[in-house]
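Sharing a chain and its predicted structure for anyone who wants a worked example. Both blocks are below, sequence first, tokens second.
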Amino acid sequence: MKDIKIEDRLIFALDVPEVSEAKKIVTELDDSVNFYKIGMELLMTGQYFELLDWLIAR
């Protein structure tokens, strides 16, 4: 079995209705989370790709 670093084991679900709320959560979690799942509600905001670009830049 492949060793997975402990900081890479958590995938945080951004299942919130607003991009601003998702950004706030990511900012608060800072370096404690490396991977995020963007929920369907955020996809429907029309700002999905803006959020995706923002996450990648972090």
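Comments welcome. The CA atoms of residues 51 and 57 lie 10 Å apart.
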